[in-house]
Amino acid sequence: MESLRVVVYLSVFLSVMTSVCRGERSTENQLPSASDVPAFGLELAEALQGLLDEADSRVGLSVEKKASVIPRCDVGERCAMKHGPRIGRLCDCLRGTACNTFFLRCY
Fold first, then answer.
1. Which CDD domains match (predicted)?
2. Which comes out higher in pLDDT, residue 18 or 62?
3. pTM of this structure
4. Which domains occur in the chain, in start order?
5. Where are the beta strands (DSSP E) in the chain?
6. SS (H, E, C) 38-67
7. From the centroid of its chain, how far is CA 65?
8. Dihedral-angle region of residue 37 (phi above 0 means left; psi in -120 to 50 means alpha; beta otherwise)
9. What is the pLDDT of residues 58-94, one digit of tens each?
10. Positive/negative CA dihedral, 83, 87, 91, 97
């Protein structure tokens, strides 16, 4: 019974405090409305779109180049690079030759 009385008093107290505090809202703590925001956001969006379009055109070329077929190497040309314990291929050796993993050249 006593816990019910505490709950009722607490709810009455909170509702009174809420109604009192609503009348004391200050304009400093409110967010600006859409009419108060300058057109800076639109200018920023247009500038970012221009940068993305420019970057898209540059990235497209490199992606196309990477997706193409690996070029062919002549005999004696460097066909691979060593990156630590790994060997990265630069080109494919011609038919009848192979990339020597010690010299990293087509023989």
1. CART_CTD-like
2. 18
3. 0.35
4. 68-106 (4.10.40.30)
5. 72-73, 80-83, 86-89, 92-93, 99-100, 105-106
6. CCHHHHHHHHHHHHHHHHHHHHHHHHHHHH
7. 23
8. beta
9. 655 555 555 567 889 999 999 999 988 898 888 999 9
10. positive
